[in-house]
Amino acid sequence: MISLVDGYLGRIMLDCQAHLTGAVADYIPELAAVDPGGFGLSMCVHDGHVYSHGDSAAAFTIQSISKPLTYALALGRRGFATIDAAIGVEPSGEAFNEISVDQRRRPKNPMINAGAILAASMLLPQEPTVSSDTVDAAFADVVEFYSACAGRRLGLDERVYASESATGARNRAIAYMLVSFGALQTDPDAAIDLYFRQCSLQVTTDDLAVIGCTIANGGVNPRTGRRVLDQAVAQRVLSVMTTCGMYDGAGDWVTRVGLPAKSGVGGGILAILPGQLGIGVYSPLLDEHGNSVRGVDTCRHLSTDLGLHMF
Ligand code: DON
C-alpha cells in the first residue's frame, strides 16, 4: 500500500514536472537564491502516516503559510470577539500585499499581509513600545505552536529573516497604515519583526502535510495525539483558507481544486481535505498571484484524480 501511494504521488509529479513556468520571488533577495527546480509532495492521512515523493525533505521558508497558524494562535489567545473586531473574514480580491482596509478600517482578512501583521501584533502586549525580549518571548510561543502542529521542532532561516528585515519597506508601510487607522494597537516595528520571523521558519512538505492533517483533524495532531488547537478555531481557519487563502486567485482555486489552502512565496502550498488529510507541495516558481505554479497544478491533478473537491 505504502509503495503504491508513493508511486502514485511520483506519477502525479511527473505529469506536472514539465510546467517549469513562473518566477522565484525576488523581492526578498535571499528567496531568489533557491533552486528553481525543487519539487516535493507529501500527504498525511488521518492515522498520521505521511506519504511523500521528490524533495519532500528539502527545507524552505513557510512564508505566508504561517498566516493561518498565527491567526489560529491569536484566536486561541485573545478569543473570537477580540480578533473579529480587529480583522475581517471577507476575500479581498486584491494582491497579498495590498495596502487596504475594509469600511470598518480593519484588514479585510487574516490571509493578506495587513491581516496577518495585525494577527501577529495580537500576540504582543497592546502597548506603544515593546521590548525586544518581549518579541523574543512571543516568537518562542509562535515556534512552540507551529512545532506542535508539525510534530517536530521548527527552526528559523536566519538569512531569509535578515533579507526580509532589510528589504521589508512595504510591510512596514502596511503596519504604519494600520497604526494610523487605529487598528494596530502595539509597537508596529515589534509586530513587523514578529511577522518577519514567523515567515522565516523552515518547513518541509512533510511538515506541511502534518500541519494540514492536524487542522483537518479538528486540531489534534495525528502523529502525536496532542490537541494543539480548539475545534472551533480549526473550523474558522479552514473557512478563511477556503475563501481567502489563495488571494486574488482564490475563486479559480476553489472552483478547480475545491480545498481550503494557503500558499507562500517560498514556493509551498498547504491544502487540506477537512476530516481526511493534509497535503504539502513545494516548487518555488510562482505565478502572478504569488502561488507556486507547479504546486497549484499538482493540487489540481490530485483533486481531480482522487475526487478531493469538497463540493
Ligand atoms: O510578507 C511577505 O512579503 C512575505 N514574508 C510573505 C508573503 C507571501 O508568502 C505571500 N504568499 N504567497
Automatic annotation (TrEMBL):
One of its GO terms (molecular function) is glutaminase activity. Substrate binds at residues 64, 113, 164, 171, 195, 247, 265. One of its GO terms (biological process) is L-glutamine catabolic process. It catalyses: L-glutamine + H2O = L-glutamate + NH4(+). It comes from the Bacteria. Its EC number is 3.5.1.2. The keyword Acetylation applies. It is an enzyme of class 3 (hydrolase). Keywords: Acetylation, Hydrolase. Homotetramer. Belongs to the glutaminase family. This is Glutaminase. It comes from Gordonia soli NBRC 108243.
